AGAP003239-PA-like protein (Anopheles sinensis), 255 residues
Amino acid sequence: MKRTFEYFPPTICYDKPAAAVVSKEECDTRRTQALQGTLALELIVPKKSAKVWTMQKGDLCRISLPEGSQVGDVNLWNLENPKKERFFSGKTRQIHSTHLKTYDRLWSCFPYLRPMATFVKDSLEDYGIDRDGGSLHDVAGTRCDDYIYKLITGEDRVGSCHSYLTAAVREYGLSEEDVHDTWNIFMCTGFTRDTQQYFCKPSPARKGDFIEFIADMNLLVALSACPQGDVSIQVGQKVPDEKCFPMKVEVFRPN
């Protein structure tokens, strides 16, 4: 006889800590002050590569799409202590949700567990949650890597977000072991209802779309322009070069 179980309605597992709830008005003011300040940095992350940059506490970073639909993988480290304090996607997911929305925060690892940055603007915020449970900017996936690619295809390859990020952070004395689970910006993902498997959809992001976040500490930031492009093709399949585009980074500093 098939076993039956008593039904219980879901309970949100974690009560929000006070530091997870920000003043929207204060964030908007900080954003405006940064945008009215100085453009401290501007760079292009070429397609299928990664770049790294630094931010001061209070800086605002805008990541935009100058040419076409493209997803990106973001890593964060405490600039003053990058070997020990870095972004913790799992705890960020537990505190906020699988997909970050404006005014959510990005949290650091143990034993620090404090906000590293605050997500303040999203040109795609109207996408919301679609009929399949898909949404944008997840902290559920990890990053594409050449190890899983070989398991799937049997082929050796060096050309993934993991390898791009690893190469980019070497100039700051970091290594492969310091690259960690990412914030997957512009990526549309979710979990299937029947099998609870991680799924992706073509990103709805288009040329001109952007996100912005404010640094809550001095940061080292790395961004990979994913070789999956808009993620309309399953990992393990060949992705045409024309599916991939560069990404633009701007850092604004309040006066």
